[in-house]
Structure prediction request, 174 residues.
Amino acid sequence: MPHWILAAATSGDSNPFQSVMDFFKSPTWHLITLLLYFLGAVIWLACAYWVFKDARRRVDDKIILAVCVLTGLVFGPLGLIVYAIVRPPALLADRREQELEVQMMQQRLGEESRCSFCKTPVRDDYLVCPTCARRLRSTCASCGKPLEPSWRVCPYCETDVHGSLPPVSVYDRV
Prediction:
């Protein structure tokens, strides 16, 4: 016969759950409840701390950061879930990196041509650099429009460029 049946049979009480009730009145149960309260408080504060650490990486405004942390402190795990739903999708570092990439692309797209020698900004119709006087382009013999050194034919008048012009070095002085 199992031990617990003997204990229940030998206790002369009429309540079969008296041993269970005695356990809930014991110091062991009191210790277990205190440990559960402590664990709950630790989890509550851990949620608030995680919200703080994550919000600091995602939110730039100090007031919104304080609201996020208070949400984690006041509502605990529920506040963590709410924060996880409404938090910004990108980290501040990622957003700054994307802004720099966009800025670099805009700079590359809007980049004006520069003199290959002195790096002064020059327009597309300049034949020589206004700063260092280096030849940038030659002109077409028939229409007089500026030509790039790599062109074989003038795109304005369809004249053969290499047959009529000697090759021009980019660094030739005018």
Observations:
- The chain has seven helices and two strands.
- The mean pLDDT is 83.
- The chain has two domains: 3-93, 113-174.
- The first helix runs from residue 3 to 10.
